[in-house]
Description:
Elements: H1 2-49, H2 51-59, H3 68-79, H4 102-118, H5 120-131, H6 137-142, H7 146-175, H8 190-207, H9 210-219, H10 225-230, H11 232-246, H12 252-287
Helix pairs in contact: 1-4, 1-5, 4-8, 5-7, 7-8, 9-12, 11-12
Amino acid sequence: MASNKKxxxxxxxxxEKAEMSFIDHLEALRWHIVRSGLVWVGAAIIxxxxxxxxxxxxxFAPAQSDFVTYSGLCNLGHYLHLGDALCMPPINIxxxxxxxxxxxxxxxxxxxxxxxxxxxxxxxxxxxRFIKPALSAKELKYSRGSIFWVSLCFFLGAxxxxxxxxxxxxxxxxxxxxxxxxxYKYMPTxxxxxxxxxxxxxxxxxxxxxxxxxFVLAKIGLISADFLRKYRKYAFVVILIVAAIITPxxxxxxxxxxxxxxxxxxxxxxxxxxxxxxxxxxKEREWS
Length: 288
């Protein structure tokens, strides 16, 4: 009887410890989120203070004819003796607003998205600190430098979207006409323009994480280099179709400029998956 009471007491004590550890786990997660949120909001406040300069020189810059990408690509085409193949048509976008709170809410959106981009390395670092205790020694070894590489890929993707994909997109859409009677006047809203630019920058930033995702999926065995090689031709076709849609002219040179970074990302993913497969095979031979 005494032993039964003792066992019951031990079970209750163990349950209490498990419950406390779970609460501590949630408490740690809460503080990681709080710190990330504070850094995010702090960066957003700084950007909001300089919102006029940011809008004139960063946000609205890809929609202006003197944007560095337009002149840079045109000069590159002349240098490569391609004529005006890389020169884009003139662009003139005038934004309109149809709500009283439109400019203020647009400023908030710019500051919050920009703050998240600026604070991305710290936010990922806080996420890494949360999951790090649950990783084994081998997993920690393989994930060494992950903060640097994840942040680097994200910023490279954001820069690609801002300096290349956004100008192509805005130039194509601004010069696209519907009908021949000039019955439609192109004048996008401020919210539509900012949302499109945000989607391009964040979408490219996340898409450039493809090599990191390929590494993780290869480590857990969901994909392999052979799998990526098998579907390479389909992936290339999809990438070329996307490049053909977003480029403003039908010539192959502008399409290739957009497609090359995406094709390189896929090939880098194949290379990384092959390295992971080779490492896994060597471990299996050692164990056998």
